[in-house]
Amino acid sequence: MRRLVALALVLSTTGCGATIAQEESAGRAVTVQNCGQQVTYDKVPSKVVTNDTGIAELMFALGLADRMAGYVIGTSQQGDVASSPWKADFAKVPKLAEEINKEVVQGAGADLVFAGWNYGFSESTGFTPEALKGMGVATYQLTEACLNGVGKQRGIMPPLEALYTDLRNLGTIFGVSEKAEELIAGYREQVAGAEELMRGKARPKVFLYDSGLDQPFTAARNAAAQDVIGKAGGDNVFGDLDDSWTTVGWEAVVARNPEVIVINDYADGDASTPEQKRAFLESYPPLREVPAVKDKRFFVLPYAALVESPRNPAAIESFARFLASG
């Protein structure tokens, strides 16, 4: 019987916590394509406010901690900070709040907000790029969470391409393109190595369980978890849904008969810990005959590894090793 795997992702410490020298081109206005729009930045931002763990880590991975006024994360993400390869940067940069809003941004004197739809930006709260523009604050939107023009659905490109796109765009905006390309090359190599671990082997059907007792919240094809699962050698059972993170029904989970369940280590709802989530899954009668539950094939990944972040490649490698082990 396989035991529940609790993973602490470890990335190379090379460059972690480092401040990267800016390139000469950083002094002029630059234009990048962000969520389908051309966006111009007249200067290199120096007081950036980020929302969410993975978004802050994108800045840290590029050596841009000194360009941040602070970060915003909820209590459910504190475990991600403790396990972060950039823990030293989290300690150095101020935590501003647990929920982002206009007052937090104004209080920090921010000149750029880096967030995403449902990763801080929200029409319902009025905290939007357009509203911030009216305050004289520039924005950059996380590509994983770009609205795709169909209601509130999110995602406009494959998840890893979203990661590489954001690294390149941030490299251009902050004048650290060389560092961005170095990271991308390393991540591509790491992912390619992980793919070799399962090459020629049967691809198990995988269900990503984020949260929810009445209805499960899971990853569709535009969420970072899609590539974490797929590049590791599995098939996301909800990879046919054109969305990022979304709610489905338990009947659909049973019908798709997953052979492995990835549990998101994210405190949300009644079952907050990975152990509580697994206990629920094993005790829920409709799931009793699902192969993943019968065979006790569970794997845990931290939240910051399953949303777009520089932890994605290491998560792919770790999950591939789990799948390859049988």
Automatic annotation (TrEMBL):
Position of the signal peptide: 1-21
InterPro entries listed in its UniProt record: ABC_Transporter_SBP, ABC_transptr_periplasmic_BD
Residues of the Fe/B12 periplasmic-binding domain: 47-326
Key words of the record: Signal
SUPFAM superfamilies, A to Z: Helical backbone' metal receptor (SSF53807)
Family classification: Belongs to the bacterial solute-binding protein 8 family.
Protein name: Iron complex transport system substrate-binding protein
